[in-house]
Amino acid sequence: MSVVVPARNEAEGLPQLIREIASALRPLCAEGEHERFRLGGFEVLVVNDGSTDRTPEVLEGLRRAYPEVREVRLRANVGQSGATAAGFRAARGAWIATLDADLQNDPADLVVLWRKLPGHDVALGWREKRQDTWFRRLVSRWANRVRNASLGQSIRDTGCSVRIFPRELALRLPMFHGSHRFLGPLLIREGAKVVQSPVNHRPRPHGRSHYNFRNRSLRVVVDLLGVWWLLHRALRYEVVPVEAAGADDRHATGAVRRRHAEDLV
Prior knowledge:
Blueprint: E1 2-7, H1 14-25, E2 43-49, H2 55-65, E3 69-74, H3 80-90, E4 95-98, H4 108-116, E5 122-127, H5 134-151, E6 163-166, H6 167-170, H7 183-189, E7 194-199, H8 213-216, H9 218-232, H10 247-264
Parallel strand pairs: 1-2, 1-4, 2-3, 5-7
Antiparallel strand pairs: 4-6, 5-6
Helix pairs in contact: 1-4
């Protein structure tokens, strides 16, 4: 599993975050874990989104203490959606989990979602008791209702960053500025079977939010229109295997596959 954590100027909280992720996921890799849920390993990809604080120095120390930690350093700040997309592409795991870096998400909830995944493609968290101002809770509640009504879906909390889904699906998602708020709807667009579960939400202990009403109002409406368009314009097709007519055809097919593999490398 690759845990993708976009981070901008969150140096103060990163040690606690990494410690909690390791404490939650290391037991899933132990021999005593049931084979159905055992992880072959995990990594924590902290995507440094143009931080101007001590994030690089803090991550250097954390990499020495926690071998699971990797830094993906972006040259300039691109926003949470861009940092998330960079994490998807840098991930090495078959599964991707996402968390915010501000410590409001509880890494222990990744274990809860992981145990609910069998029989589903995607596990999404929803914040049962939000630790935000009443105004922010009100705006979020109405935003979720509008999104679900517009998109014809029933995701309880599209803004919750606690999620687990296959990397294969992640790489198929259309990414754009603001897409991090619509990962659930976009995963459903790809035909994913989704399970939802309540998760914890904690007060922010350090720093301040990067979002406000100005950067979450008109932009979100525009993004919603774009996602509606994407949901209604999706291309769906399935390639059916065809047996080769003869040895020459089989040889040619193998050569094409080898060239394709070389292109990917």
